[in-house]
Specification:
With 187 residues, this protein is α/β, with parallel strands linked by helices. The protein is 34% helix and 17% strand. It has a single domain, classed as Isochorismatase-like (Rossmann fold, 3-Layer(aba) Sandwich), CATH 3.40.50.850. The protein has helices spanning 17-22, 30-41, 85-88, 109-115, 128-141, 158-168, 178-186, and strands at residues 8-13, 46-51, 94-97, 120-125, 145-149, 173-176.
């Protein structure tokens, strides 16, 4: 599926340093996450970065170092080089703060997307059974056409990841590997 880049937003979901610390093995999605972001940056598309706000009581334990430190230490030192802040995030990115698990929860994400005439969402993150699932369900209800990058998403339970990406998500989104998605956009 080829998307109109002027009507597409790329959402990186919960790729903070603290998430890597809490979900062992999750840093292995970084290769594909960086590839997807690099592709988006070289397209005339929009990009938003979502992360936990510092004042959310529900996630209070996660709002203190060493979990969600400064923006410049977003990625875990356990991630393989050359991953660092500038590989994924840019100072000009729009940051949308979320209050709960899903990307659309208690914030102005939908308003921002609608004001920019976004119709398509491409997203990935940690965890597949958490923010990715919640975001897809809400995006579908809001009539956004979605793409989930399965190899840039991670769940601590690989069987849950497999079932979601192979059986559940395809009903509401195009589920693709990052290289497959990029190739389709270049056609």
């Amino acid at each position: 599926m080829k998307l109109d880049p002027q009507k597409t937003a790329l959402l990186t979901l919960d790729l903070q340093k603290g998430v890597f610390g809490l979900v062992p093995g999750s840093e292995r999605v970084m290769t594909m996450a960086v590839k997807a972001v690099a592709f988006a940056r070289h397209s005339p598309s929009f990009m938003w970065v979502l992360r936990f706000p510092r004042d959310t009581r529900r996630f209070q334990i996660l709002n203190h170092p060493p979990f969600f430190g400064s923006n410049k230490t977003i990625f875990s030192s356990r991630a393989l080089p050359p991953w660092n802040f500038t590989d994924i995030f840019h100072p000009d990115d729009l940051v949308i703060y979320k209050q709960r698990v899903g990307a659309f929860s208690d914030n102005h994400l939908e308003l921002v997307l609608r004001s920019r005439r976004v119709e398509h969402l491409v997203f990935f993150g940690i965890a597949t059974s958490g923010i990715v699932l919640s975001t897809l369900r809400r995006a579908f209800d809001l009539d956004f056409r979605s793409v989930v990058l399965k190899d840039a998403s991670f769940d601590a339970d690989q069987e849950v990841h497999r079932v979601l990406t192979e059986k559940v998500f395809p009903v509401q989104a195009w589920v693709a590997a990052t290289d497959e998605f990029i190739a389709a956009q270049k056609r």
